[in-house]
Design brief:
By secondary structure, the protein is α/β, with parallel strands linked by helices. The protein contains 15 helices and 13 strands. SN-glycerol-3-phosphate binds next to loops. Belongs to the glycerophosphoryl diester phosphodiesterase family.
Length: 387
């Protein structure tokens, strides 16, 4: 749910690492010491509202430059100055471990198709009402998944990233939490993560409920508190409600297209759509169990029939009125992912005027944004903050 890649075609040419952002990220934060600062680092300090604004969130890591949901992609996001890393989208294995993949089907993001020993695991399943063919994490043990290696999801748009195919394994959530601590120590600065629970209703019906597993692992690592540097997100409001009873972390309800109906609503017979949830009454209800929303960018500024940005909606003001922060998704540098009026040239792989797009979205008052290229996001924020 919620991806934009499938509708895109073309190839990516430019893949510049914007030097200032990369160099600036690590150096400035070294040297933090003392008990109070150590405590702050451990617990995330002042919580969600202590984050820089607009907050730059590394979407699946720095997935514009590395195969998504690998420790290398997460690491690069930090090196580029991301304030938070989306580590990871979480799905379970057959033996109940949580691993970082965007969806249960792993044919598009791993080399599983090249493993003859797993050829018989290829299946067609109904995933939230959509017939899906491939290999599914719930049919593999963690030990089996660890024999696979990550590959680039959208090689047509990001051919340079295929250089790294086969290099990194699928991380577990436990490994991410340890990595977070190591990175926090190494950088002298609290590292934040933003895991998403994927398809919670689907997995609960398979006997692999996600929320209890996530809560248990967070509790084990002492990261289930209000000020813990871990924000949890889901497209299913009932999953966030369930989490609200299990942990004290900041919680965010993701919102896809206005006419979509969250899958848990479909299963429980709740007739509401996203359009209902973004009304003041829907937002008030969300604010009773969550601290934020993660809307698609189109809910912030709709596009016209030609794909050009139009006039912002009142969603930012309406959400802020009930105390919710907004972290929309997803800004990407490449032309096919940008509003039509910010594309440059015709190359599907070329970068468009993404700084212009950032300026338009930041002007609406959003609190942060998910991006595949955190270095660009950090520079865009500098432009915005410095006027
Ligand atoms: O979680 C924010 C954003 O990542 C939602 O979209 O589909 O990329 O998980 P998706
Ligand atoms: Ca996500």
């Amino acid at each position: 749910m919620g991806t934009q890649e499938n509708e895109q075609t073309g190839v990516t040419g430019r893949r510049m690492l914007l030097g200032a952002a990369v160099l600036g990220a690590g150096g400035a934060v070294l040297g933090l010491s003392g008990t109070a600062r150590a405590g702050e680092a451990r617990h995330g300090g002042g919580g969600l509202r202590s984050l820089p604004k607009p907050t730059i969130i590394g979407h699946r890591g720095a997935s514009g430059y590395r195969p998504e949901h690998t420790l290398a992609a997460y690491q690069l996001a930090l090196d580029m100055g991301a304030d938070i890393v989306e580590a990871g989208d979480l799905v379970p294995t057959k033996d109940g471990h949580l691993v970082c993949r965007h969806e249960p089907e792993i044919g598009g993001t791993t080399d599983v198709a090249d493993h003859p020993e797993f050829a018989g695991r290829k299946k067609t399943k109904l995933l939230d009402g959509v017939s899906t063919t491939g290999w599914f994490t719930e049919d593999f043990t963690l030990a089996e998944l660890k024999t696979l290696r990550a590959i680039e999801r959208i090689p047509a748009n990001r051919p340079h990233n295929t250089l790294y195919n086969g290099r990194w394994e699928i991380p577990t959530f436990e490994e991410v939490l340890k990595w977070q601590d190591e990175q926090t120590r190494r950088r002298g600065k609290q590292v934040w993560i933003y895991p998403e629970l994927k398809h919670p209703t689907y997995f609960r019906k398979l006997g692999l409920g996600l929320e209890e597993r996530v809560a248990k692992v967070l509790h084990k690592h002492g990261k289930d508190r209000r000020n813990s540097p871990v924000i949890l997100q889901s497209f299913e409001p009932t999953s966030i409600q369930r989490l609200n009873k299990l942990v004290d972390n900041p919680l965010v309800v993701l919102l896809s297209a206005a006419n979509d109906r969250p899958w848990d609503f479909v299963e429980t017979g709740d007739p509401r759509t996203v359009a209902d949830l973004v009304k003041p009454s829907g937002l008030r209800e969300i604010a009773s169990y969550a601290q934020g929303i993660g809307p698609t960018l189109d809910l912030i500024i709709p596009k016209d029939a030609k794909g050009n940005l139009t006039t912002p909606t009142t969603l930012v003001a309406d959400a802020h009125k009930v105390g919710l922060v907004l972290h929309p998704w997803t800004l990407r540098n490449e032309n096919p992912f940008l509003p039509a009026n910010f594309r440059k040239g015709t190359g599907a792989d070329a970068y468009g005027d993404v700084f212009g797009a950032y300026k338009a979205y930041f002007a609406t008052g959003i609190d942060g944004v998910f991006t595949d290229q955190p270095d660009t996001g950090v520079l865009a924020r500098e432009d915005f903050v410095n006027g």
